[in-house]
Every structure is written in C-alpha cells, then in structure tokens.
Amino acid sequence: MARYEVDLERVSFKGTVDALRQYSAILGQARSAQKTGPTSGGLLLNLARDTLPYVRIARTRALKRRHKNFPC
Number of structural domains, the chain? Predict the structure, then answer.
C-alpha cells in the first residue's frame, strides 16, 4: 500500500475481505479500465483507512482442564 504509505502488516485481513466482497459486484459490472479506475482507487482508500492499531493487547490462551477418564 505504498500509494497511501500504510504498512502491509497493519492492513486488516477481515476488513480487506469485507471490502472486496462489497466492491466485487461493482468491479464486475465495469466494462472498461476507465470505469474501474475510480472504483479500484476507492477500494484501495478504504483498505488504507481500515488499519490495525500499532500495539495489540497480548492475549493469553485459556487453560482448559484435562478430561478425566474415571470419576473422582
């Protein structure tokens, strides 16, 4: 995403998938490169805006109790 100076590590994967689903119908109906240009530019702008925060909270895994074969 050099056009908008956004690190690729900060681009949201889920946001990208959702945006592509929204724009796929519009891009599929465009018949020429002149019509897809503004639409694809809008798509890239939306992807650049939907970024992850710099610091994510460290999540710990939940410790599950081991299943016991015999009743105690």
Answer: 1
| Domain extent for 21 | 2-49
The two tokens of residue 43 are 């798509």
For residues 8 and 1, the answer to whether their CB atoms sit within 8 Å is yes
Compute CA 10 distance to the chain's CA centroid, rounded to the nearest angstrom.
9
In a domain, 14, yes or no: yes
Instruction: Give the residue from 52, 67, 64 showing the smallest Cα distance to 7.
Output: 52
User: Which pLDDT belongs to residue 17?
Assistant: 93
Does the predicted TM-score (pTM) go above 0.85? no
pLDDT digits (tens, 9 = 90+) for 7-60: 888 888 999 999 999 888 888 887 777 777 777 888 888 889 888 887 766 667
Q: Is residue 30 part of a domain?
A: yes
SS3 42: helix
